[in-house]
User: Fold DUF4910 domain-containing protein from Streptomyces botrytidirepellens.
Amino acid sequence: MAPVTTVGEEMHALVERLYPLCRSITGDGVRATLDIVGEYVPLQAHEVPTGTQVLDWTVPQEWNIRDAYIADSAGHRIVDFAASSLHVLGYSVPVSATMPLAELRAHLHTLPDRPSWVPYRTSYYQPEWGFCLAQETLDAMPDGEYEVRIDSTLADGHLTYAEHVVPGQVPDEVIVSCHVCHPSLANDNLAGIAVATFLARALAEQTPYYTYRFLFAPGTIGAITWLARNAERVDRVKHGLVLACAGDRGQLTYKQSRRGDAEIDRVVRHVLAASERPHHVTEFTPYGYDERQFCSPGFNLGVGSLTRTPYAGYPEYHTSADNPDFVSPEAMADTLAVCREAFAVLDRNRRYVNLSPYGEPQLGRRGLYDALGGRSDTKQAQMAMLWVLNLSDGEHSLLDVAERSGLPFDTVAVAADALHGAGLIKA
Amino acid sequence: MAPVTTVGEEMHALVERLYPLCRSITGDGVRATLDIVGEYVPLQAHEVPTGTQVLDWTVPQEWNIRDAYIADSAGHRIVDFAASSLHVLGYSVPVSATMPLAELRAHLHTLPDRPSWVPYRTSYYQPEWGFCLAQETLDAMPDGEYEVRIDSTLADGHLTYAEHVVPGQVPDEVIVSCHVCHPSLANDNLAGIAVATFLARALAEQTPYYTYRFLFAPGTIGAITWLARNAERVDRVKHGLVLACAGDRGQLTYKQSRRGDAEIDRVVRHVLAASERPHHVTEFTPYGYDERQFCSPGFNLGVGSLTRTPYAGYPEYHTSADNPDFVSPEAMADTLAVCREAFAVLDRNRRYVNLSPYGEPQLGRRGLYDALGGRSDTKQAQMAMLWVLNLSDGEHSLLDVAERSGLPFDTVAVAADALHGAGLIKA
Amino acid sequence: MAPVTTVGEEMHALVERLYPLCRSITGDGVRATLDIVGEYVPLQAHEVPTGTQVLDWTVPQEWNIRDAYIADSAGHRIVDFAASSLHVLGYSVPVSATMPLAELRAHLHTLPDRPSWVPYRTSYYQPEWGFCLAQETLDAMPDGEYEVRIDSTLADGHLTYAEHVVPGQVPDEVIVSCHVCHPSLANDNLAGIAVATFLARALAEQTPYYTYRFLFAPGTIGAITWLARNAERVDRVKHGLVLACAGDRGQLTYKQSRRGDAEIDRVVRHVLAASERPHHVTEFTPYGYDERQFCSPGFNLGVGSLTRTPYAGYPEYHTSADNPDFVSPEAMADTLAVCREAFAVLDRNRRYVNLSPYGEPQLGRRGLYDALGGRSDTKQAQMAMLWVLNLSDGEHSLLDVAERSGLPFDTVAVAADALHGAGLIKA
Assistant:
């Protein structure tokens, strides 16, 4: 096997490591996941006790599972949790019984249209037990008695989530959130975890302008718990991105925040368009991942969601076919690259005020103007300066300047730095 | 003849009953019309004396006519008011004379391009007499002396209009207005009267949210009179619809209010689009029917106009060809159906406030969430609840929710009812 | 030669008279230019001393030139300022020397891609000397010694600009600006001067509503000087137009003000569209002519720019090929006509308030309504009155009325005059 060399391969290796763990909205699978992520970036873990009131919700009992199977009368395990964490209905109550197939059927979940795939099912808030299996497996099960056993516990415990913070120059925050509650599903949680992890590492290499807060939490109840515990300081969150389905081979899809014109929306749209990648931009809908919570009307944060093929948009979604083969190093690297490009724009996107707003300032005597004209890169730099000066009225950001002028954001930002250095504009 | 069974046929029968009457902006023809309408829905009639100042206008003298004809030298009636109320220039002063054709011609109105049709002409505010006749009739009249007689009176009297009110849960009003001043013209006044009448009957079957006020009044001076006499309470009028040309076989046309984005505009546009009927939506113009008065800049009410082929948009307009055959039961029934659909939306179009706006409320423990997912109608109902919760910030109406979500208005309204019942939103 | 008869021919004759003069941002060439323009319209000249601080800039030394040439060893003048003012680098410092071609080359400017054309180059704010010549001329120059001589002076003096004012009924101003700093370039300055001159003459034939101020000034430093000296009264400038490249055979291009929706923007767009001329409308950019200064963020005036082919948009730009043959009488006449049409709209574009806003006023008793209907021009006039009445709520201008109604601006303005005369609207 070739050595792991690219960041895409590193992320894929992380996906493969995390894949076998049985995650859920609580329990040791989440803790084991966070322990592994913590080897890449330091994490602060939080344990929130069962019964804690979080917004309109209550932290549920903690679920843990050690073993589960269906065995035939010969004691042969036909369905075995040890083979895949998907085989057990998430949050199954314990069971230990023998029953005929006819009775067992009510507890079995299959995908008749995809007979070789195992579906992913949960029952978080209604006590229930069940197994998920391939239709083929079910078809091959003769009538007769079966032993069913789920060695799980539902007991008071904790809900676990973790944060990683990259400190910035200002306390204003950008949150990056991914869910860590799905068991053996690669695209629909592990790829997002991997991209978030390596994005955090990349941001830590410099001191960014914003403080970037990464949130690794179970879906829905985890985001709600975080919001409940951070209600006093949530107004620090100026921008955010929910990462999910980050590794399949489809085009990137940016789902805008509820506000639709939040700065993160404009930045990601700009970066995707400027990069000339094929991509989709969609309106906000109150369905999908934790943007549902961040964009609930009381918070209404500027949080969008970046995926490749979106939520529930591919046949492998929530099935055993969403395995490590379904995600590629290249796709994860591409998702990571767009995140980095977007944050590079977001982080430098200031609103300046022209301190010499009456007429153009004389750039020439400040050494900012090419006397006899000439080279095209100099020309573009000068145009960028004129645009920044003209639009720096406190209302236009550098992104506005880039979009109005058609110049690359980077050229505009460099021009702004030069003008700022010459004392012609102030932030 | 088959029994009258459908509402379209009932409306057409009303058109046929009203057709022979000689209506004008005042006089007994209007009273007779309102008497007949009053057999269908109770009306409150108003009589406003000649000379009453109404806004910038003055109620004119009342015009009544008993007989009118042109007879040839043999005493044969060539043009006879008894055959059609169109034959007399509306508001003709009386005349009784004998004169040569050459002199008579100045008082004769024809349609040379439609030689068999009789035009409709009036001269309300300038004393004048005249006859309208087919060009063919005129062409067949030999030179010579003719007896002309118009047995009309112009005298102090009253302007007549009537109202029908369907009381609602709130005093805020929706007005539905139609003109009752055209003589024997079926599409251009009688079809609108018929649709308004049966719309009033349909609304009375329940207690609507809004109070619906139906106005049967002569065009222009009638609407102006109503506005003048209701100036103190016109701010109760929140929405309105002027009905005209409601029975021809053309597509429906909705002419927006002067405001263009009034709630009635959005509602009718939505209903027409959602119904997938071919239709037109046009901008407001200060011409046409009484939307001119309701949408004058001082009132600027949210009143649109619903027609089939619009004002002056068909060759039969203001001619004897606009007779009962020109309007169909099916077209009138279709116009009525759209009015009912539009008012069904308007009447339920509330703005709610989410009482649990921080994160999503837990629908499951309130029995509003299908635990294991599943049926598509349940799914749509849940999506509608999530949309209503997400957009109920006091700024978005249920129509906004329907349009943003792409869900049927009815599904959204049912979801809002469920959430309201659970105490999660308030109006 | 045929007598000068059309205004286009008159303008072209002015271009030809001005063509040989060596203009720059200061100096006697500007004064001679303004003297000639002053024969057409009275000008008030302003002389601003060297060293005067104007906004962020300082008025430079005055440059004058008497002679300049490159002569070969035989004393033959190979490049001669007497033949074209373009041959000397604008603002060249004096030089008198003999040097080998190898050393001279660093001071020679050519257009290798257009070997027969002479480029136009300047070095205003860096002391430099140089010659501009055809590449063909350079190619024919043998190695050897050359005599170079530029008999110029750079000395304290003045910057010169001039104004012409057409007094209006109100002190609110429209400025029309053109640059007068380019030497022998016909489209890129002389055509604009000619159109401005004849536009001023045309406006002076009546007393317009606005006061029209024509500014003949050197580019950049001239506009900046004018703005600096008029800072206290610049808020009188409500609208403006920068004229340049006014004579080439390309389509008209209107470059919008920085505000994009200034009244001048709407007016010129309307006039160009209504005229059905092929044309372009472009967004503001902080590059081009003196709209850069008028539209700097501190002033942000409603000043657009009208050109034919825009700034730097044609190969002849800033070369000897931009000569009087490059501009045509017809094109200049067309530019002038559009300016006159635009100002005819701008000058009459009032916002009125309907004094009878509740319902329609009764036009008939005021003699404003055709009793029996009829002719199409009467019909259009009546429609225009209804539109003006309906939209005269203090928010809509007559241009808004024209655009909403689709009626010609002139018809709308005439209707407004009639309604104003009848006391139905006030300004």
Observations:
- Chain C has three domains: 7-60+158-347, 62-155, 351-426.
- Chain C is about 30% helix and 25% strand.
- The longest helix of chain C spans residues 329-348.
- The mean pLDDT of chain C is 96.
